């Protein structure tokens, strides 16, 4: 879903839900629990998320789901967390086929390695994009 040459500045809650593999109600709940997570709203009152917001959500997800922090423990960690500066990278939505494959994999108990692989690929992509910016 990446458009070549055009970087997206804002994402809707449905897009963020697909990017982060979290339900929309979870995003809204985390917004009420974590003061650092405070997306802006457009004129219609819809949430608009930036890349920085999405990075914060991914970090919170890592703390809660992978590292098994409680919400209170995650709040303490987030008090000292400084997200990376805006790199202008384009985040990609998880395609429907990837979501279907993820559901099938979770039924087979392979969801955790798939998430790790996805996270590793996202980190590699971010590194390569930063390297490209430095080289140009």
What does this structure look like?
The protein is mainly alpha-helical and 136 residues long. The chain folds into two domains: 9-91, Multidrug-efflux Transporter Regulator, Chain: A, Domain 2, CATH 1.10.1660; 94-136, no CATH class. Helices cover 59% and strands 3% of the residues. The chain has helices at residues 13-20, 24-33, 51-66, 71-79, 96-107, 111-135; strands at 40-41, 47-48. It has a two-stranded antiparallel sheet with strand order 1-2. A hairpin with a 5-residue loop joins strand 1 (40-41) and strand 2 (47-48). The longest helix is centred in the last third of the chain and has 25 residues, at 111-135. The radius of gyration is 15 Å and the shape is globular. 12% of the residues are buried.
Coarse structural class: mainly alpha
The CATH topology name of the largest domain reads: Multidrug-efflux Transporter Regulator, Chain: A, Domain 2
Radius of gyration: 15 Å
Shape descriptor reads globular
Write down the overall mean pLDDT: 79
- Biggest sheet architecture: 2 strands, antiparallel
Distance between the termini: 25 Å
Low-confidence stretches: 1-5, 95-110
Can you give the helix content as a percent range? Answer: 55-70%
What is the CATH architecture descriptor of the largest domain? Orthogonal Bundle
Main sheet: strand order? 1-2
User: What's the domain count?
Assistant: 2
H/E series: HHEEHHHH
Would you report the number of β strands?
A: 2
CATH class annotation of the largest domain: Mainly Alpha
* Portion in strands: under 5%
Helix count equals 6
